[in-house]
Specification:
Layout (H helix, E strand, L loop, with lengths): L13 E2 L2 E2 L12 H11 L3 H23 L2 H18 L9 H24 L21 H19 L3 H12 L4 H7 L4 H26 L5
Antiparallel strand pairs: 1-2
Helix pairs in contact: 1-2, 2-3, 2-4, 3-4, 4-7, 5-8, 6-8, 7-8
Length: 222
């Protein structure tokens, strides 16, 4: 059983005086029903593969959105992810965490798409991430609170857009998806030390970006 993030572990939940509650979606071991679907899909059962897609497409789309920052690229990424899953499912080992394996494919696909996009149109901008990178739960009441929530999203989004792809992937998997550092390292095919360094760097950049903004524009707090 994987442990959840302890309070305070998620730097994105409170940056430079701005508190944003983020979902914690810790991966679990493959449940029996999923293991059975995988076994059937490997054997050629297309209906079983369709069920796997239904149960995992939301995870793939969410991570793709947060990695790439726009709907069109996220949908392209999701389509490519499931094409690769279909192609390589026979290599999946039943003792692996399926969703960790799926996240690894998703990160690789998003990395490829981001590289192509940067080659053709330049690096990501904050506008790409304004709606989909992080979401604030709709708990506020009134126009002022909704405006503040939108400003908070935009501030974090602009900071996320500045991160290198690897740092963005590391902090999204750790602080948004809620995965342990060791799991993130396996997904990114890296070492825990490298992942900790990437997360630390990403957190520092996000914090500095937010502090710099708040110094120049004035703090916006709930």
């Amino acid at each position: 059983m994987r442990s959840r993030l302890a309070p305070g572990d998620n730097v994105l939940s409170e940056v430079a005086g701005i508190r944003i509650d983020l979902p914690v979606n810790v991966l679990s071991e493959n449940p029996p029903w999923l293991a059975l679907l995988i076994k059937k899909a490997i054997a050629g059962d297309t209906l079983a593969f369709d069920q796997i897609m239904i149960h995992s497409q939301q995870k793939v789309m969410a991570l793709s959105w947060r990695m790439l920052g726009n709907d069109a690229d996220a949908r392209d990424a999701s389509q490519e992810v499931f094409l690769r899953v279909y192609k390589y499912l026979g290599r999946f080992k039943q003792d692996q965490d399926f969703f960790a394996w799926l996240y690894r494919i998703t990160v690789n696909v998003c990395h490829d798409i981001a590289k192509k996009r940067q080659h053709h149109s330049g690096p990501a901008t904050s506008d790409m991430f304004s709606e989909v990178t992080l979401e604030v739960p709709a708990q506020q009441e009134g126009a002022d609170e909704v405006l503040i929530a939108g400003q908070q999203r935009q501030l974090i989004a602009s900071a996320m857009a500045m991160l290198p792809t690897k740092e963005r992937a590391a902090i999204l998997l750790r602080d948004v998806e809620g995965l342990p550092t060791e799991e993130v390292a396996r997904i990114l095919k890296s070492s825990s030390t490298t992942v900790r360094s990437q997360i630390s760097s990403a957190r520092r950049k996000i914090k500095l970006h937010c502090e710099r903004y708040l110094r120049t524009k004035g703090a916006v707090t709930p």
